[in-house]
Please model this.
Amino acid sequence: MEKLVKRIIRKMEYGERLVTSVIFCSMMAVVTAQIVMRYLFNSPLLWSEEFARYVYVWLVFIGSAYCVTQDKHVAVTLVTDRMPSMVRKGVKIVCNLLVAAALIYMLPHAFQYVRKQSGLLSGCMQIPMSCVFAAVPVGYTLIVIHMLLQTILIVKGTPEKEVCG
Model:
């Protein structure tokens, strides 16, 4: 079971790294092309800023899920660093489950919001806004999966360094 969980985490990490890298590179390429077109050729790309804004939304939500796997989110650890290992693990389990529960609670609302946006099109690119806002439930789902998989590893007694990063 532990090997399966670790394999799932590794595959998800790889996919998230790949997707965020592609998004970031495409965003940088389009913004650079926009700068070149605007200032060298005096012919701006009308859709570039909209594209950058919308892919940035995806970058944030998928990147947030990846940060969970690496335990890189901002945290105040003044108290937990002074706790015994077993207590720290218990706190981590409770925190993971609370975050997962909060996101699970918000997931139906996120899906409902995406459905409400399905009739709207973006200004320049004319893509459905539901494609943009779908980043929210996708990101929430990835984070919940990571939180639950981490919790399984902690309960199984996996060392802390192997659980995150």
Q: What stands out?
A: Residues 1-162 form one domain. The chain has one domain: 1-162. The helical segments are 2-39, 48-70, 85-116, 129-133, 135-156, 160-163. DSSP finds six helices and no strands in the chain.
